[in-house]
Amino acid sequence: MTTEQLIVFCVLGACLFLFIQGKIRYDLIALSALFVVVISGIISPDEAFTGFSHPAVVTVAVVLIISRALSNAGIVDIIAKRLSPLAHSPVLLLGALCIVVTVLSAFMNNVGALALLMPVAIQMGRKNDISPSLLLMPLAFCSLLGGLTTMIGTPPNIIIASYRTQGDLPPFSMFDFSPVGVGLAAAGIVFIVLLSRFMLPDRKKQGSVDELFQIESYLTEVVIPEKSKVIGKTIRDLEYLPDTEIVVIGIVRSGKKIAAPSSFEILAEGDILIVEADSEDLDVLIKEAGLELVGSKELCLEFIDSDEKKAKKRNDDSDECKEYIRADKMQLTEAVVQLESPIIRKNVINLNLRWKYGINLLGVARQGTRLKQRLKSIRFKAGDVLLLQGAPDSIKDAVNEMGCFPLAERELSLAPYKNTFLVIAVFIFAILMATLSYLPIHIALLGAALFMLLWGIVTLNEAYKSVDWPIIILLGAMIPVGTAMEATGGAQLVADKILILSGGMPAIFTLSLLLAATMILSNLINNAAAAVLMAPIAINISEILNTSLDPFLMAVAVGASMPFLTPIGHQSNTLVFGPGGYKFSDYWKLGLPLTIILSIGGVLLISLFWPL
């Protein structure tokens, strides 16, 4: 092994370790890897950022913008409305949801398709007493299956399509992936719809935000009496009392309500504070701060003296807490922490949500259960469900910037969407231009995205927000690193080892090993990165065996799109982790048999449509 090969393998090994560990964002890891191979002289400075101009990177970005346009045009809402009559049958509902998300994922970002249909599935499940745990993981897996069917369905396919040019062949076209992908998707849907309910837990999640987080048990009104210790102090001073967990939701002052007040709001005599606290913390708050309880359904009797009649009267008159958070200017929203969220491993103190966004964090649920530990001490994980309270615009902006996905129920209607047919027509036209080889796919889709921007279907701000920038940086940085592995002979070395493992067996056995290796890697690191690393190895294997390049590239594409075994294997898996109340082992129960079936089917279909 040469020095350059050793450096490349050490860099890739470090990347793999850090990707699995998950403590550093994967885009930062990729940039660090790029920096190391450049300063070591393996990649020249002039070539360092060529990955960002790669057609695969451009295609991924414009597909995400087009996905937003499809959403804005109301296409998903219209489809979801048609599913409502099927909700009476769990099997029919699951089948319809799986088919819709699979079809959508074939032409738009699979995470985007899942995100659009998740609220629909949760809402229909709640109305028909179907546990979210029986719907959401199948929906996530089918979003991955849909990505298999077309070139733009998932970033690995886009990457693999461009690698075909290294064999002096044109890139894979839009539907070259369909013969294998459609067959695997169909087999996967049948398996999931008919058998998933026997492999998944039936965890009856509470039917609403109120029930999951028990809002009324945590909201209380307290008044600041004359000579209270907190007069002239700030809300921050009150919330940071030692060993307490208190959130001031709002203030009623002289009959006026102050929603999500600033942490530096000065407290005055007569202020009525709407606070979120459990009974023990409320006891400390009243005693330490010299406050008086106004009343609440659950806590009044616990803190008012033995005058039960007086306590009952105060209970009957104290519905202001509930009315306050349900007021027109305030909103409660459940939001899921996504895999690439910047708030992962941070807590409320780090984020200072009220100061930055004007919102309050009322609760955190993990695996479908509200966490009972102190909110201040909770470090967020991917898949956590956050209960947020604030003005609708503030919550919307905060959820986006926090890298979360809102689970609030939304109404489904057939209100006219002016641009629905225009969006579909432009998208189909772009696909035809690429399919008929009039334009490269990245240019055709770029033209479609520009049209949608100029026509106003997507605003410029929405376009920038819809692009998954960590993925773009990951791809742009890892493509030169993959090139370094190939240029130094590292890919050739790995290919030789795989061939040694195959022990002179037929080429189909080597194909199976390559698919399995890619699949395992995609369950541990981002599947786009897995495709970037395994594609050069596939090219070297085909050259050594003197066989067609296509089946080996297809094997990498299929393997990279099967991260069914862990909740961290793909953003879709992480997105349903909290709302479905899943445990880590639940993914194995459904994902392992599905992986085995699709791996066998993938090898057979690749051999049939792309002969060795």
Strand order of the largest sheet: 3-2-4-1-5
Largest sheet: 5 strands, antiparallel
Give me the secondary-structure category: alpha+beta
The number of helical runs is 28
Shape verdict? globular
How far is the first residue's CA from the last residue's CA? 30 Å
What report would you give on this structure?
- The longest helix has 26 residues.
- Helices cover 57% and strands 8% of the residues.
- The strands form two sheets. A five-stranded antiparallel beta sheet has the order 3-2-4-1-5. Strands 8-7-9-6-10 form a five-stranded antiparallel beta sheet.
- The chain is an alpha+beta fold and 612 residues long.
- It contains 28 helices and ten strands.
List keywords for this structure.
single chain; 612 residues; 5-stranded antiparallel sheet; 28 helices; globular
Write the layout of secondary structure elements.
Layout: H1 3-21, H2 26-39, H3 55-72, H4 75-83, H5 90-107, H6 110-127, H7 136-147, H8 155-163, H9 178-199, H10 209-213, E1 219-223, H11 235-239, E2 247-253, E3 256-259, E4 272-276, H12 279-289, E5 292-295, H13 300-303, H14 308-316, H15 320-325, E6 331-337, H16 348-351, H17 353-357, E7 360-366, E8 369-370, E9 385-390, H18 392-401, E10 404-406, H19 420-435, H20 441-454, H21 460-466, H22 469-487, H23 490-502, H24 507-522, H25 527-545, H26 550-560, H27 571-577, H28 584-609
Antiparallel strand pairs: 1-4, 1-5, 2-3, 2-4, 6-9, 6-10, 7-8, 7-9
